[in-house]
Amino acid sequence: MKLSRGYLADFVALFFPELCPACGESLMANEHVICTDCLYHLPQTNFHLQPDNIVARQFWGKIKLEGAYALYFFAKGGRIQNLMHHFKYKGMQKIGNLLGNISGGQLAKSPVFNSVDVIIPVPLHKSRLKERGYNQSACFAEGLAQKLNAVVEVNNLVRAKATETQTHKSRFLRFENMQDVFTINNPESLINKHVLLVDDVITTGATLEACGIELLKIEGLKLSIATIAYAE
Could you tell me which Pfam families the record lists for this protein (predicted)? Predict the structure, then answer.
């Protein structure tokens, strides 16, 4: 007897269920990427409703921002950490696309973010990109662009040299580690544009600050920042 594609998918799912990367529970037939329970209970920040939120304050006196945003709060051992681990190290690029869509839906309603022209992901060095196979921030950017009606540029801002890991470094050492790391290939294309610079997780903000310093050298450029998660 020939099985229909739907029955075959159900049969495979019975023995090899797709799991939610946040909680590890099996996804139901109508659930996509992340289970409904996690989507409802993941700790959203609502920073798009708070112009002077924690992320924005991290950059006060450092770089001029139009807006700053993170979708979730990050806590060690929590569901967001599980989610980000699968996103960055397990090849689950669709997590970034989904969270980009969710974030874009929120930001499209904001008078600050709905004027974004170009979305630029924080770039990986070519050696790290080759190792991982994709830039997780670019996946997030693609999801955002679908809701914000903006263009994604992945080859304009580039990481010119590899850097040491930022883990366990102080904010000062993180910023020092980022000096002269980023360059812009075609600054003319960004003149008078509102650029949304995006990354996966923000901690001290040193990487985003280093990118922002380079971007803000461009005439008339307005800069905003968005990340998936904020880690205190």
Answer: Pribosyltran
